[in-house]
Amino acid sequence: MSKLRVGIIFGGSSLEHEVSVLSAINIINFIDKDCFEVIVIMIDKSSKWYVSDLSCFLQDNKKYSVNTFCSYIKKHGCNNIFLSLQDCPYRFMYMDNLLSFLKIDLIFPIVHGSIGEDGTLQGLLQISKIPFIGSHVLGSVISMNKDISKCLLRNAGLKVTSYEILTYKDYCINGVNFEYFVSSLGLPLFIKPVNQGSSLGVSKVFNKSDFYRALKLAFEFSYKILVESAIIGREIECAVLGNEELQISLCGEIIHNDVYYTYRSKYVDTQGVQLIIPAKISNIITSKIRCISLKAFKVLNCLGMARVDIFLTQSNQIIINEVNTLPGFTSDSMYPKLWQASGLNCTALITKLIELAMNLHRDDVKFR
């Protein structure tokens, strides 16, 4: 029986390029190679696509850094390919030989940030009718947009942080009154781009000068930003897996040394971060958090997988921070660690995600 050929798309032009590469390397290391043949599809920082198999990579048996791995793909891969939108089993075609095809049965998109998480790549894959892991366009779009997702979650009766939206046009034309936001939301505040992940462009604000610096930074990432109340509480995360019949992991807690869980804490200086799984909270609160996480997953039309980030206050209020439809898959990432602690190792998790994607694709074909 031939192996299912899985294409792992990673990289991209966003500032989360390096995180995406680390996620891809970890997936390559743990995917069951007895069942699946892996094709790597790298999008470099200039948005050029490269395709390569793993024959040389597996023979080398080295631990690659981000730069070394990307250089390897550029050296051994080819970049004269394009994605066919025809409904056929051979999805990629070579520009210099249109009679030559590359068959890929399923895509694991692990391009973090814009393009990869905001529904753009998912739309391309849906148009080309390739099965792929994770949420489709709708779930990706609304989960990536913090304004839309918070509105939907709040309308469903779930608690979210208090916030106000500020556009770049308002900022330029009308100016911004620091005192207004303090009277409305209190101090400290968080300033966030509306559509970025991994804490990029995020600042915690304690005073007026912080506030205006934070606005300037956030508007470098997005035309629309959130001004949000800072929640004093514990940071709890849950991992969700499934399409209709959902599984949920143990709860985990993140304890860090920074004023908030920064990009640096997540991916650069991880020594200052403790991941406690299971979180040291009561069974009753654990059950409530897991139920809320499942509801949030459904409200936002998520599919396949998501990580739900929660604040737990001193009075045991459960407040949703965000839902991430394409969580990190690095060796330090919370999503695979939560499932590992829940009895599903990384290899089994990847296999389950592939099965879910293939099943969902079969159902989609039925109702097309």
Task: Describe the protein.
By secondary structure, the chain is α+β, with helices and mostly antiparallel strands. It has three domains: 4-132, Rossmann fold (3-Layer(aba) Sandwich); 142-159 and 232-367, ATP-grasp fold, B domain (D-amino Acid Aminotransferase, Chain A, domain 1), CATH 3.30.470; 163-229, Dna Ligase, domain 1. Helix content is 36%, strand content 26%. The chain has 13 helices and 17 strands. Strands 12, 13, 14, 15, 16 and 17 form a six-stranded antiparallel beta sheet that branches. α1 links the parallel β1 and β2. The longest helix is centred in the last third of the chain and has 21 residues, at 346-366. The protein is globular and about 65 Å long. The mean pLDDT is 88.
Unreliable runs, pLDDT <50, ≥5 residues?
none
Distance between the termini: 29 Å
At CATH level 3, the topology of the largest domain is D-amino Acid Aminotransferase, Chain A, domain 1
* Subunit arrangement of the protein: single chain
Shape type: globular
Give the structural class: alpha+beta
Mean pLDDT: 88
Q: Helical segment tally? A: 13
Beta-sheet strand percentage?
25-35%
Helix percentage range: 25-40%
Query: CATH first level of the largest domain: which class?
Result: Alpha Beta
Biggest β-sheet, characterized? 6 strands, antiparallel
CATH architecture of the largest domain: 2-Layer Sandwich
Overall number of domains = 3
β-strand number: 17
Backbone CA Rg: 21 Å
CATH superfamily of the largest domain: ATP-grasp fold, B domain
- SSE sequence, one letter per element: EHEEHHEEEEHHHEHHEEHEEEEHEHEEHH
